[in-house]
């Protein structure tokens, strides 16, 4: 018996070793980034690819549609209660940070073949397959919960708007739009939220042209309303309300910047539109940065108006901007704000559903998810399977659960994605100078420096959160030294497309601030990060490593674009 056990143990050990070896080699695979832009695909000729319909204005409006929701009418006032008129500086600081992140996105968006994927695609090429899959998992959970939360908010705002009219006043049941709780609050039924998801899904499945038209109309409407609100409010400003400008000091302003940073999140949606852009090399950077600049200008205008109309300490909590105009007897402006909020939430929901379906499409093409997600309708040129899946999850969550309570676990995925993109700009520049990958030791040395920047940013954020400002400054010094080491120890090449300026310092600053913000999140967000990462690795070990096809040959399904 003993003699027969030896081969069994040896076979088991060999099998385990083979599994681990295959896992490591698969996890460290990368996607080649040298695919030419003028490749014709057989799948395009058979009508199975996405179609290029998005111009530069469309891309800008996608970014604006994703970023400007109902929050512009609420978060500006709620943060102003703590920072005073200095909330304007908070939005400027957060906007500058987002611009730096946008510069990183713009560079990678123009140096890659114009295919779907965004941060996932960039991580796949700059780092490895497992890192890319982890980035996708963290981002997509943010999207799933965020989309469901937006759908419920849209339902609530719609009900509130309808109740302005006497025929609907007190005649709409909670289960229709506000949520009717059952089983002690475990289930919260909301009928209107999944209905909105279904309507927008129909538009998205119909075609990118129809999506673009609806988004352009709704985004333009909300921008017009915001500009109108700023214009009318400017005549009600009392400049004495701006003094003192920072009543609670700069510390409150900086804290406010960490809060309002997430009001700008959405410009990355433009990067996921690469495959449907008419001229991606030219238009993507304009769409990413242009949409962000518009959002910054609108937020600053609203901040100046709301803090100039009413003393900051008298601002309301639930609807501060609407209450400010009501206090001046401008009730019609409050009605316009309600319409603007509905339009804003509609575009945010629409773009969120659009972007996430393209993320699933990219994973399906690469084999990390079942191939059914890679299907594109031959007539409508939309990823209908991915779109229906995304909408099913959003509708289910929005219709049965109060996902607003999950807000605490959001944003960690977005910040992770931003940081990986910034790091990717640095690492990919190392390869450009010699047209071959940097040596293993040099590459590891650079990654260690990037990790020092990230850890310093997270440490600075933690110490800042608990009041140790001087220790935060020491951590910032460590990050600066690591950035200098990156600059001195590596040679950085040029890029053919849009170049991010100041490499490696600008990407390093992005990583530092993103991780600084991460430290401000609730601990539930980090529990979610760890748990989801473990689940993702298990799924990858059981499925992804055996089905992934990192070569770009299978994903070059786009119409040719002039260089």
TrEMBL record:
<dbReference type="GO" id="GO:0016020">
    <property type="term" value="C:membrane"/>
</dbReference>
<keyword id="KW-0812">Transmembrane</keyword>
<dbReference type="GO" id="GO:0015171">
    <property type="term" value="F:amino acid transmembrane transporter activity"/>
</dbReference>
<feature type="transmembrane region" description="Helical">
    <location>
        <begin position="442"/>
        <end position="463"/>
    </location>
</feature>
<keyword id="KW-0472">Membrane</keyword>
<comment type="similarity">
    <text>Belongs to the amino acid-polyamine-organocation (APC) superfamily. Cationic amino acid transporter (CAT) (TC 2.A.3.3) family.</text>
</comment>
<feature type="domain" description="Cationic amino acid transporter C-terminal">
    <location>
        <begin position="498"/>
        <end position="547"/>
    </location>
</feature>
<feature type="transmembrane region" description="Helical">
    <location>
        <begin position="59"/>
        <end position="80"/>
    </location>
</feature>
<feature type="transmembrane region" description="Helical">
    <location>
        <begin position="86"/>
        <end position="108"/>
    </location>
</feature>
<feature type="transmembrane region" description="Helical">
    <location>
        <begin position="335"/>
        <end position="355"/>
    </location>
</feature>
<keyword id="KW-1133">Transmembrane helix</keyword>
<dbReference type="Pfam" id="PF13906">
    <property type="entry name" value="AA_permease_C"/>
</dbReference>
<feature type="transmembrane region" description="Helical">
    <location>
        <begin position="469"/>
        <end position="488"/>
    </location>
</feature>
<dbReference type="InterPro" id="IPR029485">
    <property type="entry name" value="CAT_C"/>
</dbReference>
<feature type="transmembrane region" description="Helical">
    <location>
        <begin position="288"/>
        <end position="315"/>
    </location>
</feature>
<dbReference type="InterPro" id="IPR002293">
    <property type="entry name" value="AA/rel_permease1"/>
</dbReference>
<feature type="transmembrane region" description="Helical">
    <location>
        <begin position="120"/>
        <end position="139"/>
    </location>
</feature>
<feature type="transmembrane region" description="Helical">
    <location>
        <begin position="495"/>
        <end position="519"/>
    </location>
</feature>
<feature type="transmembrane region" description="Helical">
    <location>
        <begin position="384"/>
        <end position="403"/>
    </location>
</feature>
<feature type="transmembrane region" description="Helical">
    <location>
        <begin position="249"/>
        <end position="267"/>
    </location>
</feature>
<feature type="transmembrane region" description="Helical">
    <location>
        <begin position="182"/>
        <end position="208"/>
    </location>
</feature>
<dbReference type="Pfam" id="PF13520">
    <property type="entry name" value="AA_permease_2"/>
</dbReference>
<protein>
    <submittedName>
        <fullName>Cationic amino acid transporter 9, chloroplastic-like</fullName>
    </submittedName>
</protein>
<feature type="transmembrane region" description="Helical">
    <location>
        <begin position="220"/>
        <end position="237"/>
    </location>
</feature>
<feature type="transmembrane region" description="Helical">
    <location>
        <begin position="525"/>
        <end position="543"/>
    </location>
</feature>
